[in-house]
Amino acid sequence: MDAFSQVVGVGKPLKISGKVDNDVTKLELLMTLPGGKVKRRKVSLLGAGVFAHAEYFCTKEKKGHYSVELMGEDGHGPVVLALFPVACGSADHLRKVRVTMKKPTVDMAASKAAREAFDLVNAYRKKNKMKAYKWSVKLAAVATAHSDEMCKFKSIYHLSPITGAPDKRVKRAGIKTDLVAENVAVASSPESIVSSWIMSEGHRLNMVLKDGVYGAVGVCKASINKSIHYYATLVVTGKIR
């Protein structure tokens, strides 16, 4: 994973270009705006893995920090290829980005990986002086079912072709709440699962929800090219009625 920072003048485009492995078939730019809204842009592959894209970040926001992820998709599903901040007009608007390399693959039971990932999520909340999410057996079942599905199709996604959106899955489980948030990932250990969520602005925000009360992580363990991969889903809700 690459990480770099850019300062963009107001009204000027940021040009992003490079080359990816031949097995990457799709590219997408995921941008979290200063106000928290997330926008997505398709990035065209020009052949032989080459891509070039120009994006206007600062047409409406004259200052502030953008978190940008370049997402690719290969035969195993989505993968983050680059993560970097963008500031409008001044380097003072940049926040430091810390990139943590993936931990070596750890072989453990899916249920243990799920609880370890959940404990790491709560450790992150504690670090941010927030109350821990309370483990919910019902949410664990919802999260595990979604991870099992992603495991089956070897892809990660929020909108399922079978069960729909996260809130629909929670509602179908008989859980009544006004807040539903979901994180998904595929990684080699509980540590790398949570690290990927921390590095992704949208996923990170779901870990520090002010009104989040209950949560659970579900994991499916898969072997891909003789390597262990954990497909993980974190589901968070507010108060349950």
Brief overview:
This protein has 241 residues and is of the alpha+beta class. Helices cover 24% and strands 35% of the residues. It has helices spanning 110-127, 137-153, 166-172, 190-199, 201-207; strands at 6-8, 14-19, 26-32, 38-43, 45-47, 50-55, 65-74, 77-88, 134-135, 180-187, 214-224, 227-237.
Characterise this structure:
It contains 5 helices and 12 strands. By secondary structure, it is α+β, with helices and mostly antiparallel strands. It has a 5-stranded mixed sheet with strand order 1-8-7-3-4, with no helix packed on it. A hairpin with a 2-residue loop joins strand 7 (65-74) and strand 8 (77-88). The protein is globular and about 50 Å long. The chain starts with 5 loop residues before the first strand and ends with a strand.
